[in-house]
Amino acid sequence: MRRVEILTALGFIAFAIAIVVQARSVGSGWSVGQPQPGFLPFWLGLLLGICGVIVLGQALLGEKPSLHAFFDGRTGLASVLKVSVSGIGMLVLIYLVGFYTATMVYVFAYTRFVGRHTWFVAVALSLVISFGSFYAFERVLAILLPRGMYTIIPFFG
Amino acid sequence: MTGTLHDLLYGLGVATQPVNLIAGVAGVIVGTIIGVIPALGPTQGAALLLPVVFRLPPHTGLIFLSALYMGAIFGGSVTSILFNIPGTPMSVASAFDGYPMALKGQGSRALAGSALSAFIAGTVCIILFTLFARPLADYALTWGPPEYFSVLLLAYAALVGLGGANLFKSVMSVLFGLIIAEIGTDTITGTLRLMFGTFALLAGIKFLVVVVGAFGIGELLRAAEENIMTKGAVAARISWGNVFDALKEMRGYWKTFLRSTISGFWIGVLPGTGATPASFVGYGLAKRFSKHPEKFGTGILEGVVAPESAASAAEVGALLPMVTVGVPGSPTAAVILGALLIWGLQPGPLLMRDHPEVVWGFIASMYIAVIISVTLNLFAIPIWTQILRIPFTVQVPLITLLCFIGGYTENNTLFTMWMVMVFGLIGFLFKKLDYPLAPLVVAIVLGDDTEAALRRSLIMSHGSLGILFTRPVSLALLLLAAALFFLPVISAIMNKRRSIPRAAP
What we know:
The complex is a heterodimer.
Chain A: H1 2-25, E1 30-31, E2 34-35, H2 39-61, H3 73-97, H4 99-114, H5 119-140
Antiparallel strand pairs in A: 1-2
Helix pairs in contact in A: 1-2, 3-4, 4-5
Chain B: H1 2-15, H2 18-36, H3 42-53, H4 58-83, H5 92-103, H6 107-141, H7 145-162, H8 167-182, E1 184-185, E2 192-193, H9 207-226, H10 228-231, H11 240-251, H12 254-269, H13 275-289, H14 302-325, H15 331-342, H16 349-354, H17 356-384, H18 392-411, H19 414-432, H20 438-460, H21 467-470, H22 472-503
Antiparallel strand pairs in B: 1-2
């Protein structure tokens, strides 16, 4: 936990430095009677950096090194990875084959291989959710969700 | 006075026409479903359904929208209390005590309390609205950017004071949110800034993306890790006994209720600050003034009553600037304002004169919507909670997809879907390391207004921050903000002082 705490504080400090640098590049002072666009971001970034350093100091100088790890045991880490990696996989699939085909693959893969539902349940859910969302968003609500580089199923995309 | 009363009765007449009542019931049902689904809130719901709503006449459409709004808020409280997944940002504070209550098996009492506080606060505020609408609006109109900036600082100070253990982490959360709100095109000068070298950030990062990511995906990740979904499986059945029990218990909290309602109404009136900060301020005030603040967060009804009544009061209050001056008080009010413009109705004082049936029908319909939402939903809670029966491994892909879609509809780029994922991971990290999420989200929502108010103040004063301290209303607000900000620090020191002599006799 302590290591993640330190890394996060360092991440915030890096973010704050990036903001301060970018704010300075668009001007963080005063010109023609008004503050420049970088004025507030500059000071916010500076404050964020200072707070980051304080939190970093607290983590480094903390009297008791934290007892538990960031994840208690491997099952927690595994579950979080399953959800996040499959979500990222879904995003990559959208890029390749479009939202609805990606949904079909994603729902099937998740329910079958992570959820360990039966083949029938997994296939049924994947078809219902992908076609259902296609009907709801594309037809009823007229919201066009992204198409991919390759069209696998015509119109469905 | 009699004029406004007459107007309101006229509005009630409009709202209770059969067609409009049906629109109200439909709106509540759709709204509750939207609210129960964690990734969809009232703003998204209203935005998604606008194409349908435009086909209705303006007053019917507005009643549908306000019913949807009320239903979504209630639905948001249901998931917030039962699953610790706030369906809407304004129900985040309801989870602080609502969820512990649900874990103790008092979920139905918490829900009854939440519905009743929303209902009573709504009623009180409709009366306040009709009595004080014009004088209050006139007063708020005399405020300049300095007062407005001070009020926003007050909201942040309240959030930090509430944030939890680490003051610096809360402040960082606010700062991080404010910076994110400023990414992209500067609205005042049109300059592109803080883009990290990518034009995908041109339009900035919208609060919806952060909310959907941090609360939707982030909560999903935490639920996956802790297996919360199965733990949260709470039996929720509302009986009249629960409703009366909650009502009886609430009588003891009338002070909390009054404080929340009045502060919530006033926060709602201020443009840009809506139900979300109001709910936190309500919760914070209740905790500050409580004789037993340590009980907050452990699952007491008072901790549900305070944010719910403040949020409900702010909903009504937020309509005041929208109806009278055409400035939306909340994001959802902004969507409703957009709808009015498409119908060819320009919100503002002229609308009250030229289309009284729209304005007063809308105000009355908020009230009717609260009644429909409470009666319909108190009995339908068992149906909504059936969502619990869905296995977690099926919920994951469903919620993930809804989060992606919710992010995508913000500005129709695949990039926002990635941002949803990124903020999901950030949200998870925040929760694990005790960085409070609420200040982040509120800061993102109010970021643009905060910056605009500060810059206008500085333009007025030719670059001197002194303007915030020389104007009496602004100074008073700043002092209040400082008090809220430093109160936890001061009370911690006082407690230490007090405990030292006891420890060393």
